[in-house]
Structures are given as structure tokens and as C-alpha cells.
Batch of 2 targets.
Target 1
Amino acid sequence: MDVLIDKIIEKKNPSVIGLDPRPEYIPPHIMKKHISEKGETLEAAADAYFEFNRGLIDAIWEVVPAVKPQAAFYELLGPPGVEAFRRTAAYAKSKGLYVIGDIKRNDIGSTAQAYSEAYLGAVKIGDTLHKAFDCDSVTVSGYLGSDGIKPFLDVCKREKKTLFTLVKTSNKSSGELQDLVTGKGRVYELMGKMLEDLSKDTMGKYGYSICGAVVGATFPNELVRLRGLLKNTFFLVPGYGAQGGSAADVAGAFDNRGLGAVVNSSRGVICAWMKTGYNGEDYMEAAAREALKMKDDITKYCI
């Protein structure tokens, strides 16, 4: 996690912006431009996604350390959308941003290895290695057990990258399974402890391993509990902003140095233009203002 933490310290900002476009989130002038060129097609929408994302990145890259494109929104557009995901990740990296590919893959064996190589590693074609997506980190679900995490850890160790595994998620029904009590503790606690055990040989200079945990801002008491239990696990905290989590709710994610977590906002930033009355012409300025507002809000409680 050292690279991400270095960027957080440099920007004095523990926030990550989720680049989660949908056709209705794209300012009308951008979508109309691409429809006029390619018709009402998936290709037009994918090009509009990338133009929108490029503008957002240009607006926020000096403020935030990281972005988190969610693969599902791109896969909605089929192959053109997947290419927009790749282009978005590449452009963000060119601006020095840390890219967390929010893919939430969950599988074992050779399939998990293929996912990890696709998003974090490389594939060999003849004598040439190709990096398909080259994200700096990805999200995964570990609820198949350690078999679904180890292949990702192996690639992360080799490529000097990271992953975030679902532990206590921000959705309302997460407790139906994650909060169940076993003889050894709550299910989400056992997941967190398993992650620490699997990655205990990967501690960085800040005392955090390469395997982080996804812990939702919408459950602040559980967030505090997990921070106390998982001393060496860095947190990715969704649920701030549009999902209802506040800066005070995420405060418990940070350690006594003001480190230990990165907090995500998606719609609150990328859709900020919808509240200004300028029909999206000012979407970059609106996103930049919201990103700065988020930074000021969260840093009251940490660095």
C-alpha cells in the first residue's frame, strides 16, 4: 500500500473518486456530440464515457490521489465499454493517479489467476507480454475462501500492486450474512482476520499489507471495531456521500497518524453538474469543487 499512501500524504487527501458513468450521467452536449458522429450506438456512448472521464480526471487529478472505475458500468456497453474502461485507467495513470479497478471478481484456481493477470499482471502472446488493463489495485470478494484471494496476492507480490477484499460492505442487507455470529466471532471479523493472516508477509513501510479491506461508511460502529482488530489492514471505505455516510462516519477508519484508509465518493462528484443549473457545461468545475469539498470535509478527522 506504500504507493497509495505516499500519494495520499502528497495530496494531503485520503479520498478516491469513483468513475462510474451511466448514459444519463453524461452531460448532454457530450453525449449529443458522439451520437451525431456514430448514431445511437454502444460505440457512441463509450466514446462519450471516455470524454467525460478524461474531463473529470483533468479536473481532479491535482486534488485526489486515486480514482476507482467500476467495471460494471463499462461492461453495460459491451466491448466498446470495456475499451473505455481500459482507456480511462490508462489516462488516469498518465496523470499520476492510483487506479483501483473496482471489479469485485470472485473465483478460484486458474479462473482467479486469469482475472488477476488481466487486471493487475500481463498475458504472454508469443514472446511478448501484454498488460490488458494494468490497474494498480482491484477489488475482490473473498467469500469463496482463501482459494479466491491467493491468486490475486501472488500477482500483487510479483507486480508490486494491491487488492481490496470485501469485508463489511456498505449495502443495507450486508448484515444478513456478514454479521452472523459463529463460535469464533462475526463472519466479517473472520474475513478480516483471514486477510491479515494471508498477507502478513507483505508489510510496507507504513505498517500495512498489500491486501486491504472494503469496509462501508454506512456502518460506523463496525468500522471502528474493524480498525481496532485489523491493525495492519488498509481500508477502502465506500458509502460516503450519496449512499448516506458522512465524514464523521468514516473517521473511525483512520489510525492515530491519520492514515489507514481511503474514502470513496462517486455520484457526489461526477454528477455534481446536475445541481448547478448549467446543463453540464460546467461539469469539470462542478466536480473539482465537490472533490475539494470532500477533501476539506474528511481531513477534519484525519491528516
Note: The first strand starts at residue 15 and ends at 17.
Target 2
Amino acid sequence: MQWIYLSPHFDDVALSCGGLLWEQARSGHAVQVWTVCGGAPAEGGDLSEFAQALHRRWGTGAEAVESRRAEDIASCLRMGASWRHFNLLDCIYRQAPGGEHLYASEQAIFGELHPADLPTIQAVHRELVAAPLDAVLVCPLALGGHVDHKLTRQAAEMLGRPLWYYPDYPYVLRQAEPIPAWEREMWQARVFPVSQPGLDAWGEAVAAHASQISTFWIDAEAMRAAIKEYWGEIRGVRLWVRT
């Protein structure tokens, strides 16, 4: 069986379900990670102060996307997955035709999709049409409300085909419930077990995204402890499907 996981950014699938991908690959499934926001801004292009500050925190400088692509390849190899990087820019780089930065603050990236971004959903949808019809397509629930997660989910749902959904980690920790109560009866959850070796691979897959650890944790040790705690609740990964 072929599984295709849609990752808004390079690290989202590794963070949310890295151990599951390892288990599936070990069981003989073909597993792929398609990163939607995998494009690089033009060399010497106009970056917002917000984007520049993130580059400094990541320690990547202007080579941020190149560094993150390399991290993603290392992460996918650890999970036993193949990879594909789309050319869409991360929201922190996207600009309106007049040059306005669409998402120039932390608040903006967790707000509403900018009207100038609506054609971007169509562009991502056109990329996703290439997914084989016999593949299982897994997309983010978009918990936390990040604009790139919402964009990815909307583009996937435009396909009109069955989808599985993964809770966006660590944003799911801030949710009282992964699925709102008013939707619950339309959804079904399935827990996919992850073994201790799978948990170890999960931590290693996330650690490969070294530039991103500081987004949520003080160091890789704290990250591994957090993922172990998350895994320990059900000793697996919960995916959701509409019934």
C-alpha cells in the first residue's frame, strides 16, 4: 500500500507522526512525504523583518530553505520515506503582487488566509492531483490555525477523494479535543500503534530538523521527552477519517 503524507512545512509530518511512518515503511508500505511549502525565495529578495528574525533564530541565514530541504531528506531517510518538495513559498516569504508581505508577524501566520493567497490554494490543488488514486492521502487537521496548514487542508479537500487526517503536533496539545464536539459524530479515529523502536526513530526524525527545534523546545533532549510523553498517551498515532 502507498501512503502519501502532506506536510505544510518540512518538519510537520515528522513532528506529528514520524513514528507511524517508520512503522509503515518497516512493514513494507511505500511511504512518501510531500512538503507543500518547499520553495525558496529569490536570491537577494525582499524579506520581511519577521522572516529575517526567524532565519537568525534558526541559524540558517539566507540559506534557510536549502538547509531545511537537507534536513527534511535526512528526516525522511530516518523514517524510511521518500520525499517531494513543492515550489510554493512558506507563508513568511509570500508577497502580494505589489510587494506587500502577506504574513509579516507571528499573529499573521496564525490568522486568516490573506485574500491574495486564495489562488495559492488552487495552485496546491493542481499539484495534489498527481497523487495516485490508489494511494492513501493523509493531510493535517490544521489544528492551531497556521495559515499554511489551513491552505494544505483546503487544497486536499478540493480533490473530492477520501482523506485521512493527522493531528498537528504540538499544536494538538493546546486543543481540548482534536475534533470539535459539533463535528465528532461525523469522524472516526483509528490508533496506529508505534513501538519503542518506532518512538526512537520518531525522535531522530524530528531531531534531523535541527534548525526548528528552538521553535518549540530548548534543546533536542526536551523535544525527545515531549514526544515520548505524547506517544505514551496511546503508544501510537491517532489518524482521523470522515465517516
Note: The chain has a mean pLDDT of 95.
